[in-house]
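SEVERITY: medium
COMPONENT: batch folding queue
REPORTER: lab tech (J.R.)

DESCRIPTION
The queue accepted two submissions in a row. Attaching both inputs and their returned structure tokens so the on-call engineer can compare them side by side.

ATTACHMENT 1
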Amino acid sequence: MKAGFWRFCGKPALLAAALALLLLAAGPGWARSLTVSRPNQQLYQEPSFASSPLKTVPQGAKVTLIRQEGEWYKVDYQGTVGWLHRQAVPEAAPAKVDLSRLIFGGPVAETKSEEVALAGKGFTPEVEAGYRQKNPGLNYAQMDEIESFGVAPAQLEKFIQEGGLNP
């Protein structure tokens, strides 16, 4: 192109071309690879600990970062796209800014403190009682049946001996 073209179009054309290039560069070309540094991390369907797990991601696994929302990373792991909490990759720097989301907006999802507390505590009797209170319509009969299952010490000892196990 000749210099006369830019002189004819002026600064608006130059600015529009620069913005278009910037938006294109903010796409897949900026994909980063992250290494999971904690064992057995869950890849979730949504950015929430209460969401359904899709797959377990082992320590040392490489995931491709798609985007970040709050403390959650949307990643691709072996062809499965899901959400990984930042605790799985604590050394990861903040994701590059997705300019298209910055300009056009989009929903913001954040981790609820109660979800983090639940994940840290495990499913204790106190947590279960609170969950039952918040979800009175759910059927807990099967869980109660599993929890009531017991093995007599003599049966356990026999199982250990027959299996050649070393406790």
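ATTACHMENT 2
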Amino acid sequence: MKLRYIGESFGPFGLTNGRVYIATIGDSDYYRVFDDEGEDYLYFRDNPRPCDGSSPGGRWEIVEGMTEREKALDKAFKGAEGAWYNELTGESAAIAAEYAERYKDEIEETWRALSETEEGLK
């Protein structure tokens, strides 16, 4: 997927206002983004910002949506979080585990594609 960062630019290797970045799903709270340095880092989905608090950050604008593999990965992460929640509340985690298993191949394909993309950016 491709995301445009809208907000205050930060760091020499962070995010730049208006720039479009290649990204994939990090987990349900984060995008894994190839930033200005060409490295992949996790940034919050709702307010990407530096972890040192030096900038208020900004927001993402979706330029190109998730591929089918990225959608499967997103669903699997949500399923895994559901399993964690179910364990805390004493409910069965079987449904979430089944969901994650169902999308196992898509998740592995996504990570392979991400690795190839990362190699291509270097």
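NOTES FROM REPORTER
The first strand starts at residue 2 and ends at 7.
No errors were logged for either attachment.
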